Amino acid sequence: MNTSTLTRTKPAVRRKSANPEYDTVIIGAGFAGLGTAIKLLEAGVKNFVILERGQQPGGTWRDNQYPGAACDIPSNLYSFSFAPNPEWSRSFSGSAEIFEYVKHLVKHFKLEPHIQYGQNVNSAELDDETGLWHIHTEDGKIHKGRAVVMASGPLANPKMPAIKGLADYQGKIVHSARWDHDYDLAGKRVAVIGTGASAIQIIPEIVDKVGKLTVFQRTPAWVMPRPDFTTSGFSKSLFRNLPFTQKAIREALYWTHESMALAVIWDSPLRKVAERLGSAFLNAQVKDKWMRRQLTPDYKIGCKRILVSNTYYPALQRKNCELITWPIANVSHQGIRTADGVEHQVDCIVLATGFDVPKSGTPYPIKGIGGRLLAEEWARGAQAYKSINVSGYPNLFITFGPNSGPGHNSALVYMEQQIAYIVKGVRQILDKNLKMLDVKPEVQARYNQSIQKRLSRTNWNSGCKSWYLTEDGFNATMYPGFATQYAAQMKRFDTRAYAQVQQNRPA
Q: Coil, strand or helix: which one is 483?
């Protein structure tokens, strides 16, 4: 960006008003919020605030500190390309190390002055007269912004399962995303509800500590081996002194994961190869035929999230571990009762039930032009233009919005493209002194018709039930293509797709 562009932005001002006005309000201090802040600073936009409900940055990596918590994407790919970390301790880093990386971003890019902690947003409302968004927080504050970036992420709010009697259980209940580290599991009878991404990390970590572990599985998952290795001192030194070597590894990882799309997203010959690999891995790790049958998926690979673990299958075969595949009927005062009439008495229930991903509705009321409610418009499934903008909600930008989910590659690869697009949109508002930048409804409609048509040919829409879909089968979550295709569509900010309303007041 040239110098003349940078000088058009007002310098950062520490306003004394009770309701300060910013060029941009960012909601959330996780990867998306911090990445947006970094790139806004690079673009000369300094008058912004980050509202974070917690007392530290980090988002899902701050909250998810359960035993064994780790990323299932290699560390060199699950980090920002503009902020490589040569000190990753292993191929797949744990959540504590990723959390430290996030805190490093805040320190290195000097973001702390822009962050306000303990700011839990409970509504966002557009002022039609001024074009300003009013962001209301629980403590009664109002933060005004010419643009708003919703960067709270899809994995922010724990999902509590709708199981009858759960509230009456008299033992300990722990959710994976809100782990109680003060509770001692040693010798306890523990139940784990769920066998998804968090469960398969928790189970191997606690099985040797508890007295009895009972795992309740609703649907078996496709599980693949995890090529996890400790990073040598030589490699760290190489990455520090010759950064291009780490960049080369990142590129190799990127294209390796891109090729996986052919097995994960579409019904291709590579899908069958991947399924054979998954079946071979199961057969190699589980000797008991009946258990193998219980752990064998009956749906196409990719229809649900693919899991990676070298330790999950061995943990299920420990003498003190029992796999239950009968449906849960209800929770009693002392344990869990299954449909076969058996009550499994336990001291603690671990809910590895994931997150309440916003496929429909919104986490708090969002009012656009004329007081229209986004939750009502998204009631049957969320839709947006390029996953970023929603018609009728001008100057509002969303990270990991509808149909931006990756099924095969790093989320941060997609996130960087979204951030770059958002920064272009914010600069458009500031440079042209716009009151409103609003995607045209017909443009949004055409885009979503194309997305849903492409999704109809993917494995995600092939018939299984997953968190990717709404109750009536609408896929508002995943992007039906390669990460390279996603990047290509985000590269250009086409102003013709937007209605632009000029600001009446001076810049």
A: helix
